[in-house]
Design brief:
alpha/beta; 13 helices; 8 strands; 43% helix
Length: 308
C-alpha cells in the first residue's frame, strides 16, 4: 500500500509541476554538431528569443561539466521562459563529441563562433520570434559578441572577460606562479607568429600542451572590447561583485567600449551566477552546488533589458 501511495504522490507532483510551467519544451537539432532545448512561452504568440551560450570547457546546455554542476544556464532559461521570453540553450559541440567518444582535437575557437552563428541563423529563418537576443556566459560572452554582429537585436554578457585570453592567462600565471611569467610571455609571443612550440615547462603543460595551442592561438586574436565596439546593437554587461575570475574593471572596460552598452553590477553574485554571502571558500564550493538559486536581481535585469 505504501508503494502505491508513493507512486500516487509522485505522479500528482509531476502533474502539478507541469501545470505550473509557463512554457513548452522542445529538443532541436540545429545541425550535426549542435543539439539544444527550446522553451517557448505558452501565453504569447511571437515572443522574443534569448539564445544562451555556455562558457569555456565542455559545457553542456544546462551550464554543467563533469565536476562542475550548477545548472545555472538551465535555471536561467526556465526563469526567462516563465516570464514570456523564449530561450534556446545548447550543448557545445565538444560535449556531443565526448559523449560519442569522437573528440576532434583540431577544434578551434572559431568553430564555437560558427556554431553560435548557425543557431542564430536557424531561428532567424523560422521567423517565429519577435526579436533575437544573445546571452553569453564566460567564454560564451566573446563567442556571442562575434556571432551577434549584423544578426541579433541585442547582446547580453554574463561574467564575460574584457581581455584577450593571452592577457588573462599571463596575468593569472603572474599571480599564482610568477616564476613562470617569462616563459608564459615567451610562448605567447611564439603563438602570435602562428607557430606552435614544444619548448615549455612541464608545469605549464595543462595550458600549452600541443593539442590546445592552435585553439588558444585562434582564441587570442580576439579582444572583447574591440569586438563589442563593432556591435551596432544594444548591449548589457552583467557583472557580479563576488566574481573571482573577472574583475569589475574588465566589466567597466566592456561597457566603455560601446556607447550602446550599459553595465549593471549584481551585488554578491559570483562567476557562476549565484549569491555568495561569505568568502572565497563558499564561492569556490558553489561551482558544484546545483541547489543554489540564481542571484537576486539577475533575471529582473535581463527581463528589463529585453523588454525595453
Amino acid at each position: 500500500m505504501k508503494s502505491y501511495l508513493l507512486l500516487f504522490f509522485a505522479l500528482t507532483s509531476t502533474i502539478i509541476l507541469a501545470q505550473d510551467t509557463q512554457y513548452i519544451s522542445k529538443d532541436i537539432a540545429i545541425n550535426n554538431y549542435i543539439n539544444g532545448t527550446l522553451l517557448t512561452p505558452k501565453t504569447i504568440q511571437k515572443p522574443n528569443l534569448a539564445i544562451i551560450i555556455g562558457g569555456s570547457g565542455p559545457t553542456d546546455k544546462d551550464g554543467n561539466q563533469n565536476f562542475l554542476k550548477t545548472n545555472n544556464l538551465k535555471k536561467l532559461a526556465i526563469s526567462l521562459s516563465n516570464n514570456q521570453i523564449a530561450t534556446f540553450r545548447y550543448d557545445k559541440r565538444i560535449v556531443k563529441q565526448i559523449r560519442e567518444r569522437s573528440v576532434d582535437n583540431t577544434i578551434i575557437f572559431d568553430d564555437f563562433v560558427t556554431d553560435a552563428t548557425s543557431v542564430i541563423d536557424y531561428f532567424i529563418k523560422t521567423n517565429t520570434f519577435n526579436k533575437i537576443y544573445v546571452i553569453g556566459h564566460d567564454q560564451g560572452s566573446l563567442i556571442g559578441m562575434l556571432a551577434s554582429k549584423d544578426k541579433a537585436n541585442g547582446f547580453i554578457s554574463l561574467a564575460g572577460s574584457g581581455k584577450s585570453i593571452d592577457s588573462v592567462i599571463t596575468e593569472e600565471v603572474a599571480k599564482t606562479a610568477p616564476q613562470f611569467s617569462q616563459d608564459t610571455q615567451r610562448i605567447f609571443e611564439i603563438l602570435k607568429t602562428g607557430k606552435t612550440t614544444t619548448d615549455y615547462p612541464v608545469a605549464l603543460s595543462s595550458i600549452f600542451n600541443i593539442e590546445t595551442q592552435r585553439f588558444i592561438m585562434n582564441w587570442m586574436q580576439y579582444n572583447p572590447t574591440s569586438i563589442l565596439s563593432t556591435l551596432n546593437i544594444p548591449s548589457l554587461i552583467l557583472h557580479g561583485s563576488k566574481d573571482l575570475q573577472v574583475s569589475k574593471a574588465e566589466a567597466e572596460n566592456l561597457k566603455n567600449a560601446s556607447n550602446k552598452a550599459q553595465l549593471k553590477i549584481i551585488e554578491n553574485m559570483n562567476h557562476v551566477l549565484v549569491t555568495i554571502e561569505g568568502g572565497d571558500l563558499e564561492n569556490s564550493k558553489s561551482y558544484n552546488e546545483s541547489h543554489r538559486p540564481l542571484a537576486n536581481g539577475l533575471i529582473d535585469a535581463i527581463i528589463t533589458f529585453i523588454k525595453e
